[in-house]
Design goal:
Rossmann fold; 18 helices; 433 residues; alpha/beta; seven-stranded parallel sheet
Length: 433
């Protein structure tokens, strides 16, 4: 089976190699971590302390894992924690959030790469965020006696149908997983139907809520607010995790409302760093006064009411500055980004119609009247105008969003409790390697 998978991966890699090369040249992606990805050259761990290897694909999963890592380090100080990611943005964010820990690129699922990485890291427990069912990595971990857990697990109806078509391969793979901690009963049932042992499937809730900051006056947000020269009278409209053409829609909303609401400010936070220059060019063409986050010094021109956040890892804190928000990735092909962080701050939250990646959260928020869906740029403008025109309504919407988040907290503690049974001092014994 490993050799068959290796062959499949090689064929796929060759098929997409022109696109990979073009993306690498044009956007600078996929250049880093070649040795770790293709050869498994993860950092060689020294010492004999127990080890937990946590894997997060990209920046979103890194944010999800942060409270869990903090909990594990506090509850199990005798264990080493190491972090792997797949994408460059995930790697950059992980190195910032986990500066004291070893961070590396996860090997691609070639049998030789995962075997080498496991031999160098020597984990006792491999923790995979959400749905990272890489066959060679999981099977190699299982064979060497490393326990495997999926945390914050989710399985959409579409993914379940896809896995169901190859059920004869998925079922034995799931039997190599020692814990599947999922976000909801619905997801739990889908994993069990695919062949997971019901005894290892546990509903722990979504850890995405636990990582959200709820205090608008936290030190990071206060620092950014002061750095940007924001006053208490400013009304901040923030469009975060945006992709094309969402920045242009947000700018048009600002243009349409800036004369009517003189206290309005716009903050743009593109999802990907390679688009910072593109968005800067869009802003230049508007003729409006604007500033870059990277050039802030604590003072600003009174004319500059637009801020482009061209730095990574700060979106969470910037949401704490916002009164009205638009969550990006929801009017394009990305199928949405997390709306939990602005909701936790009590921001009046809106997003577009394409939010499949967060369908459960969206469904719950809309049922609680804690968010608003905007179908296009005109509806976005109408939403922001209604919030600024009726600020009691705006605050009520934000309060509903914050209340919703507060009611979801606790998944990290439940997940850590389940993982404790797989850690060296708790589990009854090791499998034979």
């Amino acid at each position: 089976m490993p050799y068959l998978l290796n062959a499949v991966y090689v064929v796929l890699l060759v098929a997409i190699s022109p696109w990979l090369l073009w993306t690498s040249i044009r956007k600078g992606k996929y250049r880093q971590g070649f040795g770790a990805k293709f050869l498994g050259l993860a950092p060689r761990r020294s010492g004999n302390r127990p080890c937990v290897w946590l894997h997060a694909v990209s920046a979103g999963e890194v944010n999800v894992l942060q409270p869990l890592v903090e909990r594990l380090r506090h509850d199990f100080p005798h264990c080493d924690c190491v972090i792997s990611t797949t994408t460059r943005t995930g790697f950059e964010m992980a190195t910032k959030k986990f500066s004291e820990l070893e961070v590396f690129y996860c090997p691609l699922d070639f049998s030789w790469a995962v075997r080498t990485a496991l031999r160098r890291v020597r984990p006792d427990l491999l923790v995979l965020a959400e749905l990272e069912l890489w066959p060679n990595l999981i099977r190699a971990s299982h064979r060497r006696g490393t326990f495997v857990a999926v945390v914050n697990g989710r399985l959409s109806e579409k993914s379940a149908r896809g896995y169901g078509r190859i059920g004869r391969f998925v079922r034995p793979l799931l039997r190599c997983v020692d814990l599947i901690a999922v976000q909801s009963e619905e997801y739990a049932e889908r994993f069990i139907q695919l062949g997971a042992d019901p005894s290892v499937v546990q509903v722990t809730g979504s850890m995405k809520f636990d990582g959200a900051q709820t205090n608008r006056n936290n030190p990071r947000t206060n620092h950014l607010r002061q750095l940007a020269g924001m006053s208490d009278s400013d009304m901040v409209f923030l469009a975060g995790s945006t992709q094309s053409p969402e920045e242009e829609l947000a700018i048009e909303t600002y243009r349409a409302l800036r004369e009517q609401f003189a206290d309005l400010r716009l903050v743009l936070v593109p999802r990907h760093p390679e688009r910072f220059s593109e968005v800067a060019q869009i802003l230049d063409r508007t003729g409006l006064a604007w500033q870059r986050r990277s050039e802030l010094s604590g003072s600003r021109s009174e004319d500059a009411r637009i801020l482009l956040v061209d730095t990574m890892g700060e979106l969470s804190a910037w949401w704490g500055c916002a009164d009205v928000g638009f969550v990006g990735g929801s009017m394009g092909k990305r199928e949405g980004q997390s709306m939990i962080e602005p909701a936790a701050y009590g921001v009046a939250v809106s997003f577009g119609p394409r939010t499949r990646n967060f369908r459960d959260v969206v469904r719950s928020m809309l049922a609680r009247e804690a968010a608003v869906v905007v179908q296009d740029g005109q509806e976005l403008t109408t939403f922001v105008e209604s919030c600024l025109g009726d600020r009691n309504q705006m605050r009520a919407l934000g309060a509903q969003a914050r209340k919703f988040v507060l009611e979801q907290l606790g998944a990290t503690a439940k997940t850590a409790s389940q993982l404790s049974w797989l850690l060296p001092e708790s589990k009854p014994g090791r499998r034979a390697a």
